[in-house]
Amino acid sequence: MADEPSITRWSFEDFKMFYDIKFGRKKESSSKDASVNSQQTTGQASSNGNSSNGNGHLNNTSELSIYEQYRQARENSTSNGVTQADAEKPKKSLLPPFESAEMRTLAESLSRDIIRGSPDVKWESIKGLENAKRLLKEAVVMPIKYPKYFTGLLSPWKGILLFGPPGTGKTMLAKAVATECNTTFFNISASSIVSKWRGDSEKLVKVLFELARHHAPSTIFLDEIDAIISQRGESRSEHESSRRLKTELLIQMDGLTKTDELVFVLAATNLPWELDAAMLRRLEKRILVPLPEPEARRAMFEELLPSAPEEETLPYDLLVEKTEGFSGSDIRLLCKEAAMQPLRRVMAILEQQDILPDDELPKVGPIKHEDIEMAIRNTRPSAHLHAPRYEKFNSDYGSQILQ
């Protein structure tokens, strides 16, 4: 009995307040007070960078839906004397509506592969490869800039394959396309769409193309596509899940040709002869990215190893002559080896002394002719073995521009 609350009596003020609320005498004043309180609460929440929901809990503005953010911004702008026409339009949501929470979870994992910022690779930063640049501009850049001309039979190619020796600039060309077109760029590798769970790989491929259509115009870059969709056949040892993944990818790419949305699949490979014939059919534009020509090699050497005005000119003609069959990455390694020679001479001196402060360290000397010759002897090309095979594949399946 001691734990039970004691009975209390109402005072006259409490009874009067209850009577007024019950019979509506102070309904207007109470509604006004509630609106004032809600405005104060909203003002406090907005000052803290939060917003209040109907239950009194504060949520971050980023957690609101796109429509709620737009409505809140429009109300704020209207209250500040700005017309509704000047209010900011709602931005496109990051994810399209999905039929299940599972598909949305897969879409969130794929959204991490979207390059939101520009790759910042210009056409001028890629030396040589003029034929590949023209074909890419014709296939991707021009249909986005001038869609009026690319209709009917001239509808843009939806699948482009970049093939050639490793280190020749295929990935840089894809990034240049993304920079030039300002499209949503999906940088996809095999790890992005291959899952250990049964059925998830096919769902990831389907979600990937739905995301690309939602963010159109967009570019899906499949690097090393031979690891995803190699040749199919009974003689090859192939797992069932791998066949389902390849089938789903082929179906989704076939669906791109039947829509008017600007979604491009840009694939790159060093082994084009390993690709399945059905994938080659869907990759309509097949562009060879060859080893650099002498003019391109000279431009690379002049950019990577510039000659100072007060120093002797480096033997660029010798470098161009001795680097036949070198790829762009091989030329970069050769230049790095040549630049290391003066540093090695300084390091030999520093090994005989104690540690010096930074302001007392000796300067690194210029690159000499013997440094260039030493770098040429120590560097071997890595991409010249299959060069004739790439030429044969290009003559059989490639896309070319006749001069």
From TrEMBL:
Q: Which GO terms describe its cellular component?
A: cytoplasm; microtubule; spindle; spindle pole
Domain AAA+ ATPase as annotated: residue spans: 156-293
The Polar residues compositionally biased stretches are 32-45
User: Which SMART domains does the record match to this protein?
Assistant: AAA (SM00382)
Checking InterPro entries in the record gives: AAA+_ATPase, AAA_lid_3, ATPase_AAA_core, MT-severing_AAA_ATPase, P-loop_NTPase
Q: What class of enzyme is it?
A: isomerase
Q: What is the official name of this protein in its record?
A: Microtubule-severing ATPase
Disordered: annotated segments:
26-60, 73-98
Q: Which UniProt keywords apply?
A: ATP-binding, Cytoplasm, Cytoskeleton, Hydrolase, Isomerase, Microtubule, Nucleotide-binding
Which Gene Ontology biological process is one annotated for this entry?
microtubule severing
Cellular compartments annotated: Cytoplasm, Cytoskeleton, Spindle pole
Q: What is its EC number?
A: 5.6.1.1
Where does this protein have compositionally biased stretches of type Low complexity?
46-56
Taking the first listed entry, what is the main subcellular location of this protein, grouped into a coarse class?
cytoplasm
- What Gene Ontology molecular-function terms does this entry list? ATP binding; ATP hydrolysis activity; microtubule severing ATPase activity
Any matching Pfam family? AAA
